[in-house]
UniProtKB/TrEMBL annotation:
It comes from Candidatus Fimiplasma intestinipullorum. Pfam families: Hydrolase_3 (PF08282). InterPro entries: Cof, HAD-like_sf, HAD-SF_hydro_IIB, HAD_sf. This is HAD family phosphatase. Gene3D superfamilies: 3.30.1240.10, HAD superfamily/HAD-like. GO terms for molecular function: magnesium ion binding; phosphatase activity. GO terms for cellular component: cytosol.
Length: 276
Protein backbone atom coordinates (compact mmCIF):
# COMPACT_ATOMS: atom_id res chain seq x y z
CA UNK A 1 0.00 0.00 0.00
CA UNK A 2 2.79 2.43 0.86
CA UNK A 3 5.53 3.21 -1.66
CA UNK A 4 7.41 6.13 -0.07
CA UNK A 5 8.48 6.89 3.50
CA UNK A 6 9.63 10.44 4.25
CA UNK A 7 11.31 10.79 7.61
CA UNK A 8 12.71 13.62 9.65
CA UNK A 9 16.27 12.93 10.83
CA UNK A 10 17.24 14.62 14.09
CA UNK A 11 15.15 13.39 17.02
CA UNK A 12 13.23 11.00 14.72
CA UNK A 13 15.46 8.65 12.72
CA UNK A 14 18.62 9.59 14.61
CA UNK A 15 19.23 9.04 18.31
CA UNK A 16 20.74 11.45 20.83
CA UNK A 17 24.19 10.74 19.40
CA UNK A 18 22.89 11.53 15.89
CA UNK A 19 23.37 7.91 14.87
CA UNK A 20 21.02 5.35 13.27
CA UNK A 21 20.25 2.46 15.58
CA UNK A 22 20.65 -1.02 14.14
CA UNK A 23 16.91 -1.75 14.25
CA UNK A 24 16.20 1.31 12.09
CA UNK A 25 19.02 0.54 9.69
CA UNK A 26 17.93 -3.05 9.12
CA UNK A 27 14.26 -2.14 8.68
CA UNK A 28 15.03 0.58 6.15
CA UNK A 29 17.38 -1.75 4.29
CA UNK A 30 14.62 -4.38 4.01
CA UNK A 31 12.07 -1.81 2.86
CA UNK A 32 14.31 -0.30 0.19
CA UNK A 33 15.22 -3.79 -1.04
CA UNK A 34 11.51 -4.22 -1.81
CA UNK A 35 11.45 -1.04 -3.85
CA UNK A 36 10.02 1.31 -1.22
CA UNK A 37 11.56 4.78 -1.33
CA UNK A 38 13.09 6.00 1.91
CA UNK A 39 13.53 9.77 1.74
CA UNK A 40 15.23 11.83 4.44
CA UNK A 41 13.25 15.05 4.97
CA UNK A 42 15.52 17.28 6.98
CA UNK A 43 16.12 20.86 7.98
CA UNK A 44 19.80 20.29 7.33
CA UNK A 45 21.51 20.60 3.95
CA UNK A 46 22.28 17.65 1.67
CA UNK A 47 26.03 17.84 2.20
CA UNK A 48 25.62 17.58 5.98
CA UNK A 49 23.78 14.24 5.87
CA UNK A 50 26.04 12.22 3.57
CA UNK A 51 27.06 10.09 6.57
CA UNK A 52 23.39 9.18 7.08
CA UNK A 53 22.97 8.28 3.40
CA UNK A 54 26.13 6.17 3.53
CA UNK A 55 24.87 4.27 6.58
CA UNK A 56 21.63 3.50 4.73
CA UNK A 57 23.43 2.56 1.48
CA UNK A 58 21.67 5.42 -0.31
CA UNK A 59 24.68 7.64 -0.94
CA UNK A 60 25.29 8.54 -4.60
CA UNK A 61 22.45 6.27 -5.75
CA UNK A 62 20.28 6.94 -8.80
CA UNK A 63 16.55 7.36 -8.22
CA UNK A 64 17.03 8.00 -4.51
CA UNK A 65 16.25 11.41 -3.06
CA UNK A 66 16.59 13.88 -0.19
CA UNK A 67 14.33 16.75 0.85
CA UNK A 68 16.59 19.24 2.59
CA UNK A 69 16.45 22.70 4.21
CA UNK A 70 12.82 21.98 5.26
CA UNK A 71 11.83 21.36 1.64
CA UNK A 72 13.75 24.24 0.07
CA UNK A 73 15.81 21.76 -1.96
CA UNK A 74 15.02 18.47 -3.69
CA UNK A 75 18.09 16.46 -4.61
CA UNK A 76 18.76 13.17 -6.36
CA UNK A 77 21.49 11.37 -4.47
CA UNK A 78 23.48 10.39 -7.57
CA UNK A 79 26.02 13.15 -7.98
CA UNK A 80 24.12 15.43 -5.57
CA UNK A 81 21.91 16.49 -8.50
CA UNK A 82 19.76 19.46 -7.55
CA UNK A 83 16.23 19.10 -8.95
CA UNK A 84 14.55 22.06 -7.26
CA UNK A 85 15.62 24.96 -5.04
CA UNK A 86 13.49 27.75 -3.52
CA UNK A 87 15.76 29.86 -1.38
CA UNK A 88 15.63 33.25 0.31
CA UNK A 89 16.25 36.58 -1.35
CA UNK A 90 19.49 38.01 -0.02
CA UNK A 91 17.82 41.17 1.30
CA UNK A 92 15.46 39.14 3.50
CA UNK A 93 18.34 36.94 4.70
CA UNK A 94 20.26 40.09 5.60
CA UNK A 95 17.29 41.51 7.54
CA UNK A 96 16.94 38.27 9.48
CA UNK A 97 20.65 38.23 10.27
CA UNK A 98 20.67 41.84 11.43
CA UNK A 99 17.56 41.35 13.58
CA UNK A 100 19.25 38.42 15.31
CA UNK A 101 22.34 40.46 16.11
CA UNK A 102 20.41 42.29 18.83
CA UNK A 103 18.74 39.19 20.29
CA UNK A 104 19.94 36.35 22.49
CA UNK A 105 20.38 33.87 19.64
CA UNK A 106 23.00 31.97 17.73
CA UNK A 107 22.41 32.64 14.00
CA UNK A 108 22.77 30.11 11.17
CA UNK A 109 22.75 31.10 7.51
CA UNK A 110 22.51 28.13 5.13
CA UNK A 111 23.80 28.16 1.58
CA UNK A 112 23.64 25.14 -0.72
CA UNK A 113 26.96 23.76 0.44
CA UNK A 114 27.74 25.32 3.80
CA UNK A 115 26.29 26.78 6.97
CA UNK A 116 27.64 30.05 8.34
CA UNK A 117 27.28 30.45 12.10
CA UNK A 118 27.50 33.64 14.11
CA UNK A 119 27.72 33.76 17.90
CA UNK A 120 28.44 30.05 18.32
CA UNK A 121 27.87 28.70 21.82
CA UNK A 122 29.44 25.58 23.32
CA UNK A 123 26.25 23.50 23.25
CA UNK A 124 25.59 24.25 19.59
CA UNK A 125 29.22 23.62 18.67
CA UNK A 126 29.05 20.20 20.35
CA UNK A 127 25.82 19.39 18.49
CA UNK A 128 27.48 20.18 15.15
CA UNK A 129 30.40 17.98 16.14
CA UNK A 130 28.14 15.02 16.94
CA UNK A 131 26.26 15.48 13.66
CA UNK A 132 29.47 15.70 11.69
CA UNK A 133 28.25 18.94 10.12
CA UNK A 134 30.77 21.17 8.37
CA UNK A 135 30.38 24.85 9.18
CA UNK A 136 32.07 28.19 8.76
CA UNK A 137 32.13 30.38 11.85
CA UNK A 138 31.52 34.06 11.17
CA UNK A 139 33.82 36.38 13.09
CA UNK A 140 32.25 39.61 11.87
CA UNK A 141 28.57 40.59 12.20
CA UNK A 142 27.88 40.66 8.47
CA UNK A 143 26.81 38.35 5.64
CA UNK A 144 27.67 40.81 2.85
CA UNK A 145 30.07 38.26 1.38
CA UNK A 146 27.10 35.92 0.71
CA UNK A 147 25.27 38.38 -1.54
CA UNK A 148 25.80 36.26 -4.65
CA UNK A 149 25.36 32.89 -2.94
CA UNK A 150 22.09 30.89 -3.08
CA UNK A 151 20.74 31.11 0.49
CA UNK A 152 18.43 28.29 1.56
CA UNK A 153 17.27 29.49 4.98
CA UNK A 154 18.18 31.33 8.17
CA UNK A 155 17.56 30.14 11.71
CA UNK A 156 18.03 31.26 15.29
CA UNK A 157 19.09 28.93 18.10
CA UNK A 158 18.27 29.23 21.77
CA UNK A 159 17.39 26.40 24.16
CA UNK A 160 14.59 28.58 25.56
CA UNK A 161 11.86 27.91 22.96
CA UNK A 162 9.32 30.26 24.60
CA UNK A 163 11.90 33.02 24.16
CA UNK A 164 12.20 32.18 20.45
CA UNK A 165 8.42 32.20 20.11
CA UNK A 166 8.25 35.58 21.86
CA UNK A 167 10.16 37.13 18.93
CA UNK A 168 7.38 36.31 16.44
CA UNK A 169 5.27 39.46 16.80
CA UNK A 170 8.25 41.79 16.70
CA UNK A 171 9.43 40.08 13.50
CA UNK A 172 6.16 40.49 11.58
CA UNK A 173 7.51 43.36 9.44
CA UNK A 174 10.12 40.89 8.12
CA UNK A 175 8.15 37.64 8.07
CA UNK A 176 4.50 38.45 7.32
CA UNK A 177 3.53 37.46 3.79
CA UNK A 178 7.12 36.62 2.91
CA UNK A 179 8.39 33.77 5.07
CA UNK A 180 7.44 30.37 6.41
CA UNK A 181 8.35 30.24 10.12
CA UNK A 182 8.73 26.91 11.94
CA UNK A 183 10.26 25.51 15.11
CA UNK A 184 12.43 22.40 15.43
CA UNK A 185 14.60 20.31 17.73
CA UNK A 186 13.34 22.22 20.80
CA UNK A 187 16.00 24.82 20.08
CA UNK A 188 15.47 26.47 16.67
CA UNK A 189 13.17 28.90 14.91
CA UNK A 190 13.64 28.53 11.16
CA UNK A 191 12.88 30.91 8.30
CA UNK A 192 12.20 29.66 4.77
CA UNK A 193 10.68 31.28 1.71
CA UNK A 194 6.89 31.50 1.92
CA UNK A 195 5.34 28.30 0.56
CA UNK A 196 8.42 26.19 1.33
CA UNK A 197 7.86 23.31 3.74
CA UNK A 198 8.45 19.58 3.95
CA UNK A 199 4.88 18.80 2.96
CA UNK A 200 4.95 20.69 -0.32
CA UNK A 201 8.29 19.11 -1.16
CA UNK A 202 6.97 15.63 -0.33
CA UNK A 203 4.03 16.03 -2.72
CA UNK A 204 6.35 17.42 -5.41
CA UNK A 205 8.61 14.38 -5.15
CA UNK A 206 5.67 11.95 -5.03
CA UNK A 207 4.27 13.49 -8.22
CA UNK A 208 7.66 13.21 -9.89
CA UNK A 209 7.76 9.51 -9.03
CA UNK A 210 4.11 8.92 -9.96
CA UNK A 211 3.27 8.04 -6.37
CA UNK A 212 -0.12 9.05 -5.01
CA UNK A 213 -0.20 11.06 -1.76
CA UNK A 214 -2.13 8.24 -0.07
CA UNK A 215 0.80 5.93 -0.82
CA UNK A 216 3.17 8.02 1.32
CA UNK A 217 4.14 7.85 5.00
CA UNK A 218 5.59 10.81 6.86
CA UNK A 219 7.37 10.45 10.20
CA UNK A 220 8.41 13.34 12.44
CA UNK A 221 8.67 14.83 15.90
CA UNK A 222 8.50 18.62 15.76
CA UNK A 223 6.74 21.68 14.39
CA UNK A 224 8.70 21.85 11.14
CA UNK A 225 7.35 18.36 10.32
CA UNK A 226 3.68 19.37 10.61
CA UNK A 227 3.12 20.27 6.95
CA UNK A 228 4.61 16.93 5.86
CA UNK A 229 2.53 15.00 8.37
CA UNK A 230 -0.66 16.76 7.30
CA UNK A 231 -0.14 15.98 3.60
CA UNK A 232 1.04 12.37 3.76
CA UNK A 233 -1.22 9.38 3.38
CA UNK A 234 -0.19 8.15 6.82
CA UNK A 235 1.22 10.47 9.49
CA UNK A 236 3.35 9.05 12.29
CA UNK A 237 4.77 10.77 15.36
CA UNK A 238 7.89 9.58 17.14
CA UNK A 239 7.28 8.65 20.78
CA UNK A 240 9.31 11.70 21.79
CA UNK A 241 7.38 14.11 19.54
CA UNK A 242 5.98 17.34 20.91
CA UNK A 243 2.29 17.13 21.93
CA UNK A 244 1.16 19.30 19.00
CA UNK A 245 2.64 16.78 16.55
CA UNK A 246 1.18 13.76 18.32
CA UNK A 247 -2.24 15.41 18.22
CA UNK A 248 -2.40 15.55 14.40
CA UNK A 249 -0.91 12.14 13.60
CA UNK A 250 -2.69 8.94 12.62
CA UNK A 251 -0.30 6.90 14.74
CA UNK A 252 2.04 7.64 17.65
CA UNK A 253 4.99 5.29 18.08
CA UNK A 254 5.78 3.61 21.33
CA UNK A 255 9.45 3.91 20.35
CA UNK A 256 11.35 7.14 20.78
CA UNK A 257 14.20 8.28 18.55
CA UNK A 258 16.54 6.31 20.80
CA UNK A 259 14.56 3.06 20.44
CA UNK A 260 13.89 2.65 16.71
CA UNK A 261 10.99 4.74 15.44
CA UNK A 262 11.42 3.75 11.80
CA UNK A 263 11.74 0.08 12.69
CA UNK A 264 8.35 0.27 14.42
CA UNK A 265 6.76 2.11 11.49
CA UNK A 266 8.07 -0.28 8.86
CA UNK A 267 7.18 -3.38 10.86
CA UNK A 268 3.65 -2.19 11.54
CA UNK A 269 2.67 -0.53 8.27
CA UNK A 270 5.04 -1.67 5.52
CA UNK A 271 6.13 -5.21 6.27
CA UNK A 272 3.89 -6.38 9.12
CA UNK A 273 4.67 -9.60 10.87
CA UNK A 274 2.07 -12.13 11.90
CA UNK A 275 -0.16 -10.89 14.68
CA UNK A 276 0.16 -7.19 13.75
Amino acid sequence: MYRLIASDLDETLLNDEHQICEANRQAIKEATARGIKFVPATGRGYTSITNVLEALDLKDKENEYVLSFNGCALTENKGNRLLAFEGLDFDIARQLFEFGLNRDVCIHVYTLDDVYVYRFNDDERERFHRQGTHYTELREPSIAHLKDEPIAKVLYENLDVPYLMSLAEEMLPITEGRLCVSYSSNRYVEFNRLGVDKGTALLKLASLLDIAPEETIAVGDNFNDLAMLEKAGLSVAAGNAVPEVKAVCDYVCQATHNDGVLAEVIERFVMPKKGL
